[in-house]
Amino acid sequence: MRIIRNIVVTAALALAAVSCKTSDKIVYLQDIDPTVSTTVDPKNSITIQPKDRLSIIVTCKDPEMASIFNLPTVNYQYGSETVKDGGTQRLIGYAVDEQGCIDFPQLGSIKVAGLNRWQLQDKIRDELVSRKLLNDMVVTVQFMNFKISVLGEVNKPGSYRIEGDKVSILEAISMAQDLTIYGQRDQVYVIREDNNQRTTYKVDLRSKTLFDSPVYYLKQNDVVYIQPNKVRAGQSNINENSMKSVTIWISIASLLSSLGVLVATIIDNKKN
């Protein structure tokens, strides 16, 4: 009975050790203190960049007066074929050029790069009023091409269009239905192109330092890539029908080895 009890205890300890080690690799924000509050910067909305496309709509009491400042709605096209009855329609939008400007009706070239959409709304409204072109209007600005991509070890990789003004890396991962069990939480990369420079950032989802990263809030066209662990990389050389998880077999082998050593020790003690 004592031998069996010792074997059971050893097995439990071995499994617990494997479980704790695995937990340290997959749990998010392990060092965060839930009792501590942190001030969040409210100025984290994205700013306009060259090559952005903006929807700018001006409305007032007189629709005809406002119509000259609004781009028309066109049919969505697939190649050279226009979608007809029942097809999708969309605004053309204002394209931001390489100098960070747009060409706005009656106002001409306007510098917009570096502004958020709220600042651009105020700027256009103030210009229309100061030039006495329109009064009592509402200006609405929205991004038409704010999207991010999530690749690698996530359950639903792909590109995602963002409707609001900001999105965090945690929200982006949530859109991709979280990391798979094979994704390395400390090997997450964000590829960003800004001011004609491509920069790659590395973040650790297991640490609260994530919140201080310059890529915690993503920008338009950011690419998030999650690197696979060694088990996933090794599976590329393993037949799908032979094993489902190398980790399980390694754990079993380690457990059997420990049990063998324990049994051998007990037998030797009895002989002595």
Q: How would you describe this protein?
A:
- With 272 residues, the chain is α+β, with helices and mostly antiparallel strands.
- Helices cover 31% and strands 25% of the residues.
- It has helices at 2-26, 63-67, 117-130, 169-175, 230-235, 246-271; strands spanning 53-59, 73-75, 77-78, 81-82, 89-91, 94-95, 101-104, 108-111, 138-143, 147-152, 158-161, 183-194, 197-203, 223-228.
- The strands form five sheets. Strands 11-10-14-12-13 form a five-stranded mixed beta sheet.
- Helix 1 packs antiparallel against helix 6 (246-271).
- The longest helix is centred in the last third of the chain and has 26 residues, at 246-271.
Report the structural category. Answer: alpha+beta
Radius of gyration: 29 Å
Strand order of the largest sheet: 11-10-14-12-13
Number of strands: 14
Helix and strand pattern: HEHEEEEEEEHEEEHEEEHH
How far apart the termini lie comes to 19 Å
- Report the biggest beta sheet as strand number plus sense, adding barrel if it closes: 5 strands, mixed
Q: In one word, what is the shape?
A: elongated
Q: Return the average pLDDT rounded to an integer.
A: 81
Task: Tell me the number of helical segments per DSSP (H or I, 4 or more residues long).
Answer: 6
Quaternary organisation: single chain
Q: Helicity range of the residues?
A: 25-40%
Quote the beta fraction.
25-35%
Runs with pLDDT <50, length 5+?
Answer: 14-20, 78-87
